[in-house]
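Morning F.,

Quick status update on the modeling queue. The single chain you submitted on Monday has been processed. Sequence for confirmation:
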Amino acid sequence: MLTAHSNFRRSGAHLESWSTGRSFAEFREQVQGVERDPQKFLTAYMLDGPCFAIPKMPKYSAFRHEVAEVLSPTSDLGCTILVEGVRVVGSGKLGYSLNPKQFFKPFDAANGSDLDVAIVSETLFEKSLEDLQAMKFHQELNRSLVGKPLSEAHFRQIYILRSILDGFVPLESVLTRMRYGQQWSKARDSLIQTLGSGYEDIEINFRLYKSSEHLRAYQLRSIERAITELDKRNAANGRI
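Structure tokens below.
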């Protein structure tokens, strides 16, 4: 049985572009069947290669350029987002989710799938930490909580702090309180227009990473968890 750290030694598989109409079986074989390690899968399919949600490469490239343009802060934050630091990730990139809460759920823009966009900018990451410190949201996390039940707000604060240690800011709960928050919130509308028909109701989520290394590390963990889950399913179904 394959493991999350194996080299996926399965015969007959090759590094090739995925079609937008591939089945889950095809996706599974790509994840587990290619003769390479998770790092190479990450590079070839999550960070590079075609995007399931935006299958035409020129359109995907144009989308990344527009994201970099409309999200570069217009305030006095002193930073510019580079197109090299913009990537669609998650089910929008692969066609199936690697989120443990919804393993392998197909991407479907018409039925509630979100489009996750990773932004890499060390300068903006540091500016975001300044905003978070100004909010003083973490001051409630102190010794007075010992032995007491935690509220949903406390768990959210802990998640944000853990995320910072992992090199990213989960913006879904704090975006509007950032200095660039209003600009990014408005930018969603223009980006949805760029995507065109079929994406009118899609939700675009942004996640800000400190570096490309932190982005790789986070996505690699998702891939390894997915491989482990596929191993379990294969074993349960008697597949080798």
